[in-house]
Fold:
Amino acid sequence: MRPIRRFFSYIEQREGLLGYLFASPWLFGFLIFGIIPIILSFYYSLCRYDVLRPPMFVGWENYKYLLFESPNFYRSIYNTFYYTIFRVPIVIVGSLLLAMLVAKPMPGIYSIRTIYYLPSIVSGVALSVIWMWLYNPQYGLVNQFLGWFGIPGPLWLQSEKWSKMAIVLMGLWAIGGGRMIIFIAGLNAIPRELYESAEIDGARWWSRFWHITFPQISSILFLLTIVEIIASFQVFTEAYVMTQGGPLNSTLFYNLELYNKSFLDYQMGTASALAWLLFLVTLCITLLLFKVVGSRVYYEYAAPR
Amino acid sequence: MIKKLKNIFQRFLIACVIIAILYLFAFVRGPELEIPKRTTITCWIAMGAEELVPPEPSWFNQSQDKIYTQIMSVPFMEIERKFLTSVVGEVPPDLFEFFGSVSQWSSRGALISLSDYIKRDNYDCSQIFPALWEDMMWDGKIYAIPTGTACDAFYWNKQHFREAGLDPEKPPKTWKELEEYAEKLTIRNPDGSIKRAGFVPGYWSATGIPIFIYWALQKDAKYLSPDGRKVILTSPACIDAVEWEGKLFEKLGRDELIRLRASFGYAGQQGFASGRVSMIEQKSSFPQELLKYAPNIEYGVSMFPIPEGGHPATTSGSVWMGIPAGAKHPDEAWEYIKFRTRSDIAIKSAEYTIDQNIITFFPANIKAAECPKQMAIPGMPIFVESMKWAHSPTIIALAHSVFWREYAMAWDEVIRGKKTAREALETAERIIQRSLDDQLTYNDFYLKHKQEQGHIACAQ
Structure:
């Protein structure tokens, strides 16, 4: 009699189980400190809650307030989108260009790469304080530099028109960072024969870039773009340290609004609703990107469909 | 095959045991401060920029041998959240010293009521400035005792007055005079920008733009209806005050003034300290700041100019001490509070602060505020006089931060000329009202919930 054909053999099942057993400490922690708080936060988003007192169930009130009545909600979404739309291309394209500059192994290239990488280590509060000084309209270096060319600098962080752009331009600080490293790795993985055969056929540098480099690193570009979009939706520290929402709420980013609602106003229910809406928006955008661009990305191994 | 698997299983067991042992190490604590035969109580205070060690606990510990007070300084940016977490986790300190709104804690049951202690021990509430008690109360009970306070006052640069041909000993006494003097004192550059501003309404320091409401309080503006359920930002007094400040900005040149204000910094770069503003609204700790960063400035201190038919007003918050809900030694904590706020200790504390050259609040205890050393600080007599007219900056306890954010936003819109005072304040009123309504229903729910539970907690 033939043995019943199982989906996984006995050994495979056993090994799978042991695998889960070894991962169980982490799984356990993730369940308690990750999954359960996320589920609880959805429950709290349907309540009024200030941590010190028990939650009061109010149904969809918080969502209705945010979507239909709160003036700051749409303001914060606009601010965050503005920031994202400018930041993502600047950072991705900037990192790629820098990477292309330093990808070829040349003598001394490692020192140059390190120097380009160094600014990205400074982050968060320290960086914000530095830039507050740089952006000072009268004594800051930025306006002094513009003054050399006869351009009267704007009020930067004190102006409701320029405050967001000021924070976007701060992001140039980071283009030599981890993204550049990843691009360098990706650029160096492109097989040399492709370039050689292109040169033999007489391709110019633009054709070489567009037809060889760009498709080969498209998977990295795709990944980094999505990661960058998700990260820039969560911009917070700069606004918190430098402008606290800025002149006339011009730098009231989504995360800052969430912080205000949760730790200043003690309205954890509304804050949880904000968090879940952010999750939904990020999810939708990511899925959209996958659908529109995902199928055209080149992967060296079999492409996932 | 079974043998091999048993081996893996054994290894897994050993790994688990090792991890468990390592985990147990997490419970090892440093030696707890145990003073024999004394109850130890902990007090959390917000650590300022100067990392001071307050002397009062050691005085207390030396004066008796039953209680030992230990101070823990928590960084100022984290203390609120840490306190919140500790109360929720039921491991709060025995004492909490903080500044700002008491009612954001007391209305949520994070502090215990001190009214019973006050009655039991016949605590003398009159030794503290009367204006400060308003903020300490919630629902008819007292939740904290003030130890220090500050108020806002008007400063003017005597040198600039002389240059502009004004009498340096006569500050403006009315709104009209303030407008005239501001115009006279302003010096402009040839290209139209302002070199020195006579007066910048609402300007205080480089970080943020705190909005001052005493201009409205001078005409008795009421922001909350008597039953505490309705927000009123559109009273005539309030609209007049905000409109007037907007007109001042317009008169002196909106864009130029904003540009000038944007260039001010901290300490020596502060507008008044660097001689770029002639008259300013500032806190009562400003004289000590000026002594430190700009000792050459000849300045005067007075109460704010008042409008026609108005009276003096100022805002005054306080540093206070309260006992968190769930504290392990509330009785001992109360003993420390009594000690700390006693008149003689308050005087000693004030003298210590002045000797150490610390820029801080002045004592909430009236005798200490009027003691000779404290009165020797420039402007102190004015501050003590102002306390008669002081208001707490906690206007709407249940929507405190929303109130200030939206009010500041409305104010900002008016001075930048984006909206009229009425429009801006109406919008702010709507938003704050909505927030207050939500909090009131939540509060009612909470009280009902407690009644149903038969809860006789100390909190409410």
Q: What stands out?
A: Chain A has a mean pLDDT of 89.
